[in-house]
Design a protein that fits this description.
Radius of gyration: 22 Å
Largest sheet: 6 strands, parallel
CATH topology of the largest domain: UDP-N-acetylmuramoyl-L-alanine:D-glutamate ligase
Shape: globular
CATH class of the largest domain: Alpha Beta
Main location: cytoplasm
Strand content: 15-25%
EC number: 6.3.2.9
GO molecular function: ATP binding; UDP-N-acetylmuramoylalanine-D-glutamate ligase activity
Number of strands: 20
Number of helices: 17
CATH architecture of the largest domain: 3-Layer(aba) Sandwich
Keywords: ATP-binding, Cell cycle, Cell division, Cell shape, Cell wall biogenesis/degradation, Cytoplasm, Ligase, Nucleotide-binding, Peptidoglycan synthesis
Catalytic activity: UDP-N-acetyl-alpha-D-muramoyl-L-alanine + D-glutamate + ATP = UDP-N-acetyl-alpha-D-muramoyl-L-alanyl-D-glutamate + ADP + phosphate + H(+)
Length: 444
């Protein structure tokens, strides 16, 4: 019996444990921190051996294969030790994929992954496909492979999940964009991060597809210098393409098969240039999976968007409150500010992953009248924007940030939470940050 050791007792770890047990592995879960009550109950109910608040080396180094949660860096001593002992260390996605014959659409990129994933899932479900959604969203991929019988999956994949793949493949891969993010995990080398994203195409063959942003320099440069076997399917807002998706006369034109789609931009339910790109990518993937044109168009019109992504929370005394907590990097916040058509009070800050805020200066100068900092260390924000914004206030939590913003905002203006940073200093995760913001707004 093969021994499967799982590092991390969260969503992906516990899902992998269930699948591993079902497939006849001897399973052991080890978490350096505590395991939450919800997941502990699943492990106990399924009689899966686990430990928490420690890693017992002898129990881990006896593994035939190790699945590590995406949050654990490759550089920690235990992982290096496993690799020295030639024990394969893989991601949940790699482990689970070998047990399903489903058609997989894998979606990665620095921004737009979640929206594109949810939008494509929405279209395919409406088109009558038996389709699951997983990756960074909802129940883990491994748990769904164990318990469901989906014929297709739409998977949102982070670079950390892709770092742990060997033979995993997406029949359709979508690369939304690449901008500097998580550089702390890639030795502050942007090229290493780019290579990591492109692992999504490493096992693709000539019968597979790579849908990508043809306006993105990092993507274009990689494609010039490296080969992929997949058929390239580009989308662009800047140029007309003979094959792919582009904009002409305020219409989205999609020309990848005989069923050409022509749709007015104004009918898209999600606004902003970045969402136009997300819609192009999702539409082309849906067409490649034989969804009908009419279903695609109707789905694009009634899609509701992702929670914590430019989500309208409420209007209080004439002031709009917008939750964009999912903006954990500068590029995502750039999109958010670009979409703002009112004078804005901007709530920003958190754990900086090596951010360069300079790209935001023109937008901040044009649209932002005050900055409310929401982080433990805000020096970089104050240094960057101190010359262009008169008012910068530091706060110690969502409630205080909202109250300060309310004082600063006048009727007809907007308060935007778009932190450009990770959330681990004051919150559990970006969802917790977004929920606390929404609660504070509702209590005004």
């Amino acid at each position: 019996m093969k021994r499967l050791v799982i590092l991390g007792g969260g969503e992906s770890g516990v899902g992998t444990a269930l699948l591993g047990k079902q497939k006849g592995y001897e399973v052991f879960v080890s978490d350096k921190n505590g395991i939450s009550k919800k997941y502990k109950e699943v492990l106990l109910n399924n009689e899966i051996d686990f430990e928490e608040n420690q890693h017992t080396e002898s129990k881990i180094l006896s593994a035939d294969v190790v699945m590590k949660s995406p949050g654990i860096p490759d550089k920690v001593a235990l992982i290096l030790q496993l690799k020295e002992n030639s024990i394969p260390v893989i991601s949940e996605i790699e482990f689970a994929a070998q047990f399903t014959a489903a058609t997989i659409v894998g979606i990665t990129g620095s921004n737009g992954k979640t929206t594109t994933t949810l939008l494509l899932h929405h279209i395919l479900k409406n088109a009558g496909l038996n389709v699951g959604v997983a990756g960074n969203i909802g129940d883990s991929f491994a748990q769904q492979v164990a318990e469901q019988s989906y014929e297709s999956y739409v998977l949102e994949l982070s670079s950390f999940q892709l770092d742990g793949i060997e033979s995993f493949n997406s029949h359709i891969a979508i690369l939304t964009n690449i901008t500097p993010d998580h550089l702390d995990r890639y030795e502050y080398d942007f090229n290493k991060y780019i290579d990591s994203k492109f692992r999504i195409t490493k096992n693709q063959t000539a019968t597979d597809y790579l849908i990508y942003d043809a306006d993105d320099d990092a993507i274009n440069n990689w494609l010039k210098e490296n080969k992929t076997s997949a058929k390239l399917v580009p989308f662009s807002l800047e140029k007309e393409l003979e094959y792919g998706a582009y904009i002409k006369d305020n219409n989205i034109i999609i020309n990848i098969n005989k069923d050409k789609i022509n749709m007015p931009l104004s009918t898209l339910s999600v606004k902003g240039k970045h969402n136009t790109k997300n819609a192009m990518a999702a539409t082309m993937a849906a067409q490649l999976l034989k969804a009908r044109k009419q279903v695609i168009i109707e789905s694009l019109e009634d899609f509701e968007g992702a929670e914590h992504r430019l989500e309208n929370v409420a209007k209080v005394r004439g002031v709009e409150y917008i939750n964009d907590s999912k903006a954990t990097n500068v590029n995502a916040t750039y999109y958010a500010l670009e979409c703002m058509d009112k004078t804005t009070i901007w709530i920003v800050g958190g754990v900086d992953k090596g951010n360069d805020y300079n790209d935001l200066l023109p937008l901040v100068r044009e649209k932002v009248k005050a900055i409310v900092c929401l982080g433990v260390d805000n020096d970089k924000i104050k240094n960057t924007f101190g010359y262009v914004v008169d008012i910068i206030v530091e706060t110690a939590g969502a409630e205080e940030a909202v109250k300060v913003s309310q004082k600063l905002a006048e009727s007809g203006e907007a308060v935007l939470l778009s932190p450009a940073c990770a959330s681990f200093d004051l919150f559990e995760n970006y969802e917790d940050r977004g929920r606390q913001f929404k609660n504070a707004v509702r209590n005004l």
